[in-house]
Amino acid sequence: MKKLLIITGVLILGAAIYGYYEFNRGAVSNADAKSDVTISANELLTAFQTDEAAANAKYNDKVVEVTGEVGTTKQEEGKTIVSLNAGDSMAGVTCELDPTAQHKRTNFNTGDQVTFKCTCSGILMDVVLVRCVEK
Fold first, then answer.
1. Cα 89 to Cα 15, 45, 83, 104, 125, distances in angstroms
2. Which DSSP helix (H) or strand (E) runs through 107?
3. Quick check: 91 and 50 in contact, CB under 8 A?
4. What pLDDT score was predicted for residue 58?
5. Dihedrals phi, psi of 128, to nearest 5 degrees
6. Per-chain mean pLDDT for the chain
7. Cβ-based neighbour number of residue 121 at 10 Å
8. What is the arithmetic mean of pLDDT over 33-52?
9. Could you tell me how far CA 38 lies from the centroid of its own chain?
10. φ and ψ at 19, to 5 degrees?
């Protein structure tokens, strides 16, 4: 009986340590992640505009390496958001920089050519990419 209580106690302690570790684990940075897809901002927007369901299946929750030309940059609620021109005056690709990552730079000029690794969240008016880091 005493042996059973010791084994049960060790298992409960192990489960508690594992649960604490998982609860406090942060999101993995895309800086170290392998890209699932490499694509231009134009191609990404076109994919979502042509067939949103297929694009959602192909890109959502994937690490996307996107290249494009900076349209605008803004600071919003402590986050840097970079909009990439994608050949459509009404829509584009919005890249929200990862607030927990170290960035080479956070100031981008209109017309700069950039490549970001991001997690794709789908399309609203623009294709939304989050947790972006410049490659």
1. 53, 12, 12, 29, 11
2. none
3. no
4. 96
5. -105, 120
6. 91
7. 17
8. 95
9. 14
10. -60, -40
- Architecture of the structural domain at 37-134: Beta Barrel (2.40)
**Domain definitions of the chain by residue range:** 37-134
DSSP string for 64-102: EEEEEEEEEEEEETTEEEEEEE-S-SS--EEEEEPTTS-
25, two tokens: 């684990």
Evaluate whether 105 touches 91 at the Cβ level (below 8 Å): no
pLDDT band at 27 (very low <50, low <70, confident <90, very high): low
Asked if residues 31 and 117 have their Cβ atoms less than 8 Å apart, the reply is: yes
Q: What is the pLDDT of residue 109?
A: 93
In terms of Cα–Cα distance, which of 35, 32, 74, 58 is closest to 127? 58
28 vs 70, higher pLDDT: 70
Model confidence at 26: pLDDT above 70: no
> Regarding beta strands 93-97 and 127-134, do their DSSP bridges make them parallel or antiparallel, or are they unpaired?
parallel
How buried is 49 (Cβ within 10 angstroms: 0-12 exposed, 13-18 middle, 19+ buried)? Answer: middle
- Per-residue pLDDT at 103 exceeds 80: yes
